[in-house]
Design brief:
This protein has a nine-stranded mixed beta sheet with strand order 11-10-12-13-9-16-17-18-19, sandwiched between helices. Strands 4-3-2-8-7-6 form a six-stranded antiparallel beta sheet, with no helix packed on it. The chain has a two-stranded parallel ribbon with strand order 1-5. The protein has nine helices and 19 strands. By secondary structure, it is of the alpha/beta class. It is globular, with a radius of gyration of 22 Å.
Length: about 375
């Protein structure tokens, strides 16, 4: 098994400063690896490259979009240092490098994540984005703006979709956009690229960098206090502080578009740190007769505790197949009313399957996808 050195990555991560916005450009110091990556990098390629996995003394592995892997015949050196969050971007591109460290703090593995800009991917939500703008202007009679949460597992395209939403919302109407003032809170510089000059994929949006991951909540609030946005965009809401910051933004009349990890609305309800985004849960004790009549004999029933932070939620289920909840509060109430929810906070409960059962009973839900010709298909 041969060994190929990557050289330097700004003297930090193992490969030279790229001058082109492609993953292949990041490996100019390594012609052999560059040659192996090239077949999976063009827009016409199928499958496409998703990640490059490089661990010390192990062969390089390429993870592809069809969930297969290609193992190369050599390994690479992974001896340099990254930032405190173990991530860095490749300036001039949307790619990300993440590190694994041993107990002494030395790097023994790297994951090179391919970031892509897919112009027009958010057009599947064009009507929703227009409705969000109307809610911001008070044209729909809503009490608060129609903020949007994107929910999906890692690798389902949440960040890619987020970039194009920021682009469409920020471009002026003359360029096919909505003409809104958009601020992106960009932790790890993953949305708009790892350089002070933002990647053009975000249109006219402005970007606030976040020095440390734990500072994201504070920067979210600063975005509203200091920069007068119509829309705040953020990737990966994941802590109680960030949940509170998200609520603060929405309560101040600003649209929020964010993402969170999860597979479904029901799964998010079972996450104690994130379920306040959906209004939270309150336990109600029932009398014997009511429990038998309405709750399968269970004495405790869970109900939504308050208003949801996000009005609308989009579950990214597969490529170009999304489940859209037009009214999060109605979806949560329906879900709680139709499941054995007495054990809901326990993620190991057998009721979890019944919670997700019969999603089409939610009258405000749509499934949006594209057919083979690229046309939008909406199922209700």
């Amino acid at each position: 098994m041969g060994r190929v050195g990557l050289g330097r990555l700004y003297e930090a991560c193992g490969f030279p400063e790229p001058t082109k916005g492609s993953m292949a450009a990041a490996f100019d110091a390594n012609p052999r690896l560059r040659q192996d990556l090239t077949p999976f990098l063009s827009k016409a390629s199928h499958p496409q490259l998703v990640e490059v996995i490089a661990d010390r003394n192990k062969r390089v592995s390429l993870r592809l979009s069809d969930r297969t892997a290609v193992d190369l015949s050599y390994c690479i050196d992974v001896q340099q240092a990254l930032g405190v969050d173990n991530r860095m971007g490749v300036p001039g591109s949307l790619h990300r490098i993440s590190a694994m460290r041993n107990r002494q703090g030395d790097i023994y593995g790297l994951t090179y994540r391919v970031g892509r800009h897919l112009p027009g991917v958010a057009l599947l939500l064009a009507d929703l984005l227009s409705s969000m703008k109307a809610s911001l202007r008070g044209e729909l009679g809503a009490e608060r703006p129609q903020s949007l949460l994107l929910l999906g597992r890692p690798g389902t395209g949440k960040t890619t979709l987020l970039r194009d939403i920021a682009r469409l919302m920020s471009l002026p109407p003359s360029e096919g956009g909505l003409g809104l003032a958009v601020i992106i809170v960009d932790t790890s510089n993953e949305i708009a690229g790892d350089a002070e000059e933002c990647h053009p994929c975000i249109g006219r949006a402005r970007r606030m960098m976040v020095a440390r991951r734990e500072e994201q909540a504070g920067v979210l609030v600063q975005a509203v206090q200091n920069h007068n946005p119509d829309v705040v965009v953020v990737d990966e809401i994941g802590t109680a502080k960030e949940v509170a910051a998200a609520r603060t933004i929405c309560e101040r009349g600003v649209l929020l578009v964010g993402t969170a990890h999860g597979s479904s609305l029901a799964g998010l309800l079972r996450n104690p740190e994130l379920r306040p985004l959906l209004g939270g849960l309150a336990a109600v004790t029932l009398g014997d007769a009511e429990a038998k009549a309405s709750n399968a004999g269970h004495k405790t029933r869970f109900e939504r505790a308050g208003a949801a932070t996000f009005v609308t939620l989009l579950e990214l289920q597969a490529k170009n197949t999304w489940r859209l909840h037009l009214d999060v509060e109605q979806s949560v109430d329906t879900l709680l009313a139709h499941g054995n929810n007495s054990a809901l906070p326990d993620s190991s409960s057998s009721s979890s399957s019944s919670m997700a059962a019969n999603p089409r009973s939610q009258v405000n839900m749509q499934v949006r996808s594209r057919d083979a010709s690229g046309r939008m298909v909406v199922q209700t």
